[in-house]
Specification:
Length: 160
Amino acid sequence: MATVTKNLSAYDGNSVPNAEKLRFGIVVSEWNSNITEPLFHGAKEALVDCGAIDKNIIRYNVPGSFELVFGSKKLIETEKVDAVIAIGSVIRGETSHFDYVCGATAQGIKDVNLAYDVPVIFCVLTDDTLQQAKDRSGGKHGNKGTEAAIAAIKMAVLGS
Ligand SMILES: Nc1c(NC[C@H](O)[C@H](O)[C@H](O)CO)[nH]c(=O)[nH]c1=O
Ligand SMILES: CC(=O)[C@@H](O)COP(=O)(O)O
């Protein structure tokens, strides 16, 4: 199923565990902040809607999506959290740098998932155009941050 056939913000609250006793880390890339900030707010709002307490949501900022890997690692090593959401927006430019950033970030986040007993949710948009990114960060296709928050709650419970 492609994103265009679903609303990223849609979830059934009755099928999501209560998050009141859970602690979350959110690592946010500063690159394309016009996209990553709406993703962050979508994620935080969904976590709170599902019972999470504001003081149990810890935010780290990193320069770009490539640094989400190290930022997630450091957050897990520093804070006691049940899940981490890694938020980024990579938009294709003129060169193949897009492919290297997306590939390294995806593989790196996968590696952190395996290295630590803490789920790290891949909330990184990898778009060909700015419009695609806008559509997925609170636009016509919903908010990937919301989707990531629900995944974080479910995975935190699975890992508990
Ligand atoms: N072009 C984008 C980048 N590039 C920067 C890298 O993520 C990284 O910060 C740099 O290579 C230094 O290590 N990052 C994004 O998140 N989004 C982009 O579109
Ligand atoms: C994803 C990127 O690093 C990319 O936006 C950089 O743009 P360019 O490939 O034109 O240097």
